[in-house]
Write a structure and sequence with these properties.
By secondary structure, the protein is α+β, with helices and mostly antiparallel strands. It has four helices and eight strands. Bound molecules: zinc ion (ZN) (2 copies).
Length: 165
């Protein structure tokens, strides 16, 4: 969803509200890395304060991930509010806000980027999840196995780390 910023910049309105529901695009979807993502609902407004444009927005969505340790499905609801300053690319302080290259703001892109910063670094079904045995693959939450942890070749430890990413 594109929002034309010209009427606000030109002073015709001092506020513009928006509401949208959209699906993550393929690129954002890959970066989220979930099994399933619901449509993302967002609602907010753009207003001018002084010479500056600000976006305030609320968004929410539901996700299904695999537990990083045991692969069980984990459902997660992410919901947040944010406020950000809009800046044009010819401004010097371009790292202190959201860069808009034209007079149209892409709400989908803005909310998708914001959402990515709220995906937890590690997703586990339970803080105490025991994960899968690195040797036999058994789910250690359900049962113990007979593998002796002390015998794990350090090279497999490295592989285990790779798989948990
Ligand atoms: Zn787990
Ligand atoms: Zn085992």
């Amino acid at each position: 969803m594109l929002i034309n910023l010209s009427p606000i910049i030109n002073g015709r309105y001092d506020k513009e509200t928006f509401e949208d529901t959209f699906n993550l695009n393929v690129e954002h979807g890959k970066r989220v890395g979930a099994l399933h993502v619901s449509p993302i609902a967002c609602k907010g407004e753009i207003e001018i304060m002084g010479e500056r444009l600000y976006v305030t927005c609320h968004y929410e969505a539901n996700f299904t991930f695999n537990c990083d340790r045991c692969l069980k499905e984990v459902k997660l609801h992410i919901e947040d509010d944010f406020k950000t300053k809009l800046i044009t690319t010819d401004e010097e302080e371009s790292y202190d806000g959201y860069v808009v290259e034209t007079e149209a703001l892409d709400i989908v892109e803005l909310v998708s980027d914001e959402l990515l910063t709220h995906i937890p670094f590690q997703i586990v079904c339970d803080e105490d999840c025991q994960g899968l045995c690195a040797t036999c693959g058994k789910n250690l939450n359900e049962d113990e196995c007979n593998c002796d942890d002390a015998n794990i070749d350090p090279r497999f430890e490295v592989l285990k780390d790779l798989f948990s990413e």
